[in-house]
Specification:
single chain, three-stranded antiparallel beta sheet, five-stranded mixed beta sheet, alpha/beta, 8 strands
Length: about 325
């Protein structure tokens, strides 16, 4: 029996007919919060079982767990995460490791250029916790090529459902820019050619500085990131975004809220240019013309029923009127080519 089956049989076993008849109705009125908590616990146990299985396989293959100084471990050549200014999950992980210790080792490889140092493959959050707590980090050291490193790195994050859409997109773009072929990138992300093209297209459309300030935004899926990328092509979109980025609300928000604020700013329809409309009346009080002023233009519209042929007469007088205008303004205005 697998670990998952064992967990399912232990916590999800259906009651027998006799158990149903003897169960008091009040006993089955379980609060929604309790159900949710049990679901979370089961998910954590299932993930723990997967991690334990991986560790068991690694140990069975002769890979020993060692304890390393976090300062000797460098980042992966290809980053796959965006920093989050507010990250409750990381705080929970740090509290858990502080109280119970590190249960699952990270994976590193010997640094290809510097003896005595390492590069992380996966487990960055656990490494960061160890550094924060001033502890050594438990790790498995494995000799890996660059290709094996990025594939293992991508697969681990996908198994844990941990990378958001934009993190996957940026990871794919960084891999391509680093010279990895499409087959390797597809293997690292467990995706196909069409999805990979979408990842890279979106990543190239979103400025890295903007993506970094927003963060992973785990609740924002592909369609909203695509819409944001398209919105950046609109006139003055970055002006609207910069106003949001400088706001106190943005600075104090978590990553998903930051995305929503930026998305809203880009999604606003462009403001219509302001218009001023004046009316011209004849000496008898008839409103015979409208003067419409917009940014960069002025229009004079006559009501031909009230003042027939007057518009044509005014048009014929434009040269003379303009000459008078220049004389009055002492050459302050001149023809512009």
């Amino acid at each position: 029996m697998s670990r998952k089956d064992a967990i399912d049989s232990l916590f999800l076993k259906k009651p027998t007919a006799s158990e149903k008849t003897t169960t008091d109705k009040s006993a089955v009125r379980v609060r929604t919060g309790a159900i949710s908590a049990m679901g979370s616990s089961l998910q954590e146990m299932a993930e723990g079982a997967k991690a334990a299985a991986r560790l068991q396989d690694q140990l069975a293959s002769g890979e020993a767990v060692v304890f390393l100084d976090p300062s000797t471990i460098e980042g992966s050549p290809i980053a796959d995460r965006l920093p989050a200014a507010i990250d409750p999950k990381f705080q929970q992980l740090e509290a858990s490791i502080s109280e119970e210790g590190q249960q699952v080792p990270i994976l590193v490889r010997p640094h290809p250029e510097t003896a005595g140092r390492y590069q992380i493959v996966y487990g960055r959050r656990r490494l960061r916790v160890a550094a924060n707590l001033g502890r050594e980090v438990s790790a498995i050291v494995r000799n890996l090529t660059d290709r094996e490193l990025v594939v293992a790195q991508g697969r681990e994050n996908l198994d844990r459902a941990d990378l958001s859409f934009i993190e996957k997109a940026l990871f794919a773009l960084r891999l391509e820019d680093a010279g990895f072929d499409r087959a390797t990138i597809i293997a690292a992300l467990s995706t196909d050619k069409s999805d990979l093209s979408r990842y890279i297209a979106v990543a190239r459309s979103i400025p890295i500085n903007l993506a970094t300030q927003i963060g992973p935004a785990s609740k924002a899926g592909r369609s909203r990131w695509v819409s944001l990328a398209e919105g950046l092509g609109r006139s003055k979109a970055m002006d609207a975004i910069n106003v949001v980025l400088e706001s106190e609300q943005f600075r104090n928000s978590d990553s998903d809220t930051r995305f929503a604020l930026v998305f809203k700013a880009v999604s606003k329809p462009p403001a219509r240019p302001s218009k001023k409309v004046k009316a011209w009346s004849t000496p008898k009080g008839k409103k015979a013309a409208r003067i419409r002023q917009e940014v960069g233009r002025t229009a004079l519209i006559f009501d031909e029923k009230l003042v027939p042929a007057f518009g044509e007469y005014v048009a014929d007088q434009l040269d003379r009127l303009y000459t008078q205008f220049l004389e009055i303004n002492e050459g302050g205005e001149s023809d512009q080519q």
